[in-house]
Design goal:
CATH architecture: 4-Layer Sandwich
Helix content: 10-25%
Mean pLDDT: 97
Strand order of the largest sheet: 4-6-9-8-10-14
Strand content: 15-25%
Number of strands: 15
Structural class: alpha+beta
Order of helices and strands: EEHEEEEEEEHHEEHEEHEHE
Number of domains: 1
Radius of gyration: 17 Å
Shape: globular
Distance between the termini: 26 Å
CATH class: Alpha Beta
CATH superfamily: CNF1/YfiH-like putative cysteine hydrolases
Length: 247
């Protein structure tokens, strides 16, 4: 359908009032390297195309409000009930208000979508390796102020271990934080490391007492039809992973 975007719904046992998932790159108005549903205004795409894509997202998913877009900087700031009229600098957001859409944009980094078993709050996290190492997950969970046994997490599409090469310095940063992180790195033929960003996040979540974790099966790098990948393409668009409580 021309008026419907391609949307990967989260598969998890969230309450019925929770809407969550990730946009795919098909069925948008951007061209060239940004084909087709690029939702990022900071990557060099035509601003009119981005504006139209965001409008298509809102219409296609029947959103009653504009998503709360963030200026993501690979940091650890968490915005609580951010205003959707301005762009807040943060790498995570939390909503306790119905229809307020938390959203993060990615093209290899890991998006985490979070709710609780009562469906009374939601959160979205943008987690690259820097954010994971610096505490973006920990800061978000602390700000939610929720019983960790009630938390549900969906790991949205990100780069897989086979495609995510990093240097010694990245492995050493994680090693200093937790010896368990070493299992997330495998040496390759170039004497560098293949990092498992999904497992890094799971270890962080488990350390907080969170075990209801779902998703984590996709690879943005290996599926160019569905996903943007900065590692694969350089100049490219961004998908949006979003979550909200419908009224």
């Amino acid at each position: 359908m021309k008026n419907k975007i391609a949307f990967l719904e989260a598969v998890w046992p969230a309450p019925a009032n929770i809407i969550a998932g990730t946009t795919l790159r098909q069925r948008g108005l951007s061209g060239g390297a940004y084909t087709a549903l690029n939702l990022a205004a900071h990557v060099g795409d035509d601003v009119i195309a981005v504006r139209e894509n965001r409008s298509l997202l809102k219409t296609s998913l029947s959103l009653s409000e504009e998503p709360c877009w963030l200026n993501q900087v690979h940091g650890t700031e968490v915005a609580i009930n951010p205003c959707n009229k301005t762009t807040v600098t943060a790498d995570a957001s939390i909503a306790t208000i119905q229809n307020k859409v938390c959203v993060v944009m990615t093209a290899d980094c890991l998006p985490l979508l979070i709710t609780n078993t009562s469906g009374s709050m939601v959160a979205a996290i943008h987690a690259g390796w820097r954010g994971l190492a610096s505490g973006i997950i920990e800061n978000t969970i602390a700000a939610m102020n929720c019983n960790v046994n009630e938390i549900l997490v969906w790991l949205a599409p990100a780069i897989s271990q086979s495609a995510f090469e990093v240097g010694d310095e990245v492995r050493e940063i994680f090693q200093q934080e937790n010896i368990k992180f070493l299992e997330c790195f495998k040496i390759n033929s170039r004497k560098r490391w293949q990092a498992d960003i999904y497992q890094l996040a799971k270890i962080n979540l488990n350390a907080l007492g969170i075990y209801n974790i779902f998703g984590g099966k996709d690879c943005t790098y290996s599926d160019s039809e569905k996903f943007y990948s900065y590692r694969r393409d350089g100049a490219c668009g961004r998908m949006a992973s979003l979550i909200y409580m419908k009224s």
